[in-house]
Write a structure and sequence with these properties.
With about 300 residues, the chain is an alpha+beta fold. About 35% of the residues lie in helices and about 20% in strands. The strands form three sheets. A six-stranded antiparallel sheet has the order 1-2-3-4-6-5, with helices on one face. Strands 7-9-10 form a three-stranded antiparallel sheet.
């Protein structure tokens, strides 16, 4: 969409493009109806072409409305609807995502930063699951830092799915499912075509935390020279299947292996012990003498 002073809902001015999400382009926006120095003056605007065969932004907007509560790591939704040929979602403006910050820090975070993130991310996903929702696309790009604080926010609900039926029963196990999400972080069950559940979001979080600790995962780079996406996925699946948690977590505090062993031991419909996982990293944080001082690897960088 060309953005020469485009107005949305007679209120929001479309600014420069920030990036592309799973199913739409993301822009900076300005709310004309709030004062210049108001923290909600800037917003994030997500656009999805209504002429596309697959349209997911409307359902994503409904999820934001359903999920939003203050201090739960879910961005506030300002407006959603239709503008010309586009579905529109407007949410609060956030800061950079973890992948961007990781890159700015030379693909290295100290243990203190990763443990602080781990605690917030586990709380994020615990809340999401408490509302009956699976994320299914856990990756650093989908965790953003608050614009006015260092709180962690979970975004991009285009691939989310309810795991509870209307009668509050768990969805049934199923096979022959297409792989969803980002292959680098997807669970073994996802590779094997199984229906995903809470354990799979947690397994993906484990891969992400190990990535943030080590700077890479063993299967990164596999399949770059293959001719098909299917062959690339097969090679990554093979590597994930064959590597042990000991190898995967080599050189890391034992809590990372304990985390991975636990989430991989969960049954399909089993409710995870989120507090157990949270406390693994909290206790390690305290044993190292760290303080919750709001100082991270990126704090020393020029204001982002």
């Amino acid at each position: 969409m060309a953005n020469n002073y485009i107005m949305i809902n007679n209120r929001y001015v479309l600014g420069k493009q920030l990036g592309t999400g799973s199913f739409g382009d993301i822009y900076v926006g300005i709310d004309r109806l709030v004062p210049t120095d108001h923290p909600e003056k800037m917003v994030a605007i997500k656009l999805e072409d209504r002429r596309k065969e697959t349209q997911l932004l409307k359902s994503e907007a409904e999820l934001y409305r359903y999920l939003y509560q203050p201090n739960r790591g879910i961005p506030k939704i300002h407006w959603s609807g239709i503008q010309d040929d586009y579905n529109v979602l407007i949410i609060e403006m956030l800061g950079p995502n973890l992948e961007n910050l990781f890159s700015l820090c030379g693909h290295h975070f100290i243990l203190k930063t990763v443990l602080t993130l781990a605690q917030e991310i586990i709380k994020n996903i615990q809340y999401l699951h408490s509302r009956g929702v699976l994320h299914r696309d856990i990756k650093p790009e989908n965790f953003l830092i608050g614009l006015h604080n260092n709180n962690v926010y979970l975004v991009d609900f285009g691939l989310c799915k309810f795991f509870k039926n209307r009668d509050n029963t768990h969805i049934p196990w199923a096979d022959n499912k297409k792989l969803v999400g980002t292959v680098r972080y997807t669970s073994l069950n996802g590779h094997q075509g199984h229906e995903l559940s809470r354990r799979d979001d947690l397994e993906s979080i484990g891969y992400m935390l190990i990535y943030l600790m080590k700077g890479s995962l063993p299967w990164q780079g596999l399949g770059h020279t293959t001719s098909t996406r299917e062959e690339k996925y097969r090679l990554i699946h093979q590597c994930k299947s064959q590597i042990s948690t000991e190898q995967l977590c080599q050189g890391l505090p034992k809590e990372f292996k304990v985390y991975m062993d636990y989430v991989k031991s969960l049954d399909f419909a089993e409710k995870p012990k989120y507090n157990y996982l949270y406390n693994l990293f909290t206790q390690l944080f305290k044993r190292n003498g760290y303080e919750y001082d709001n100082v991270y690897d990126w704090t020393h960088l020029t204001k982002l």
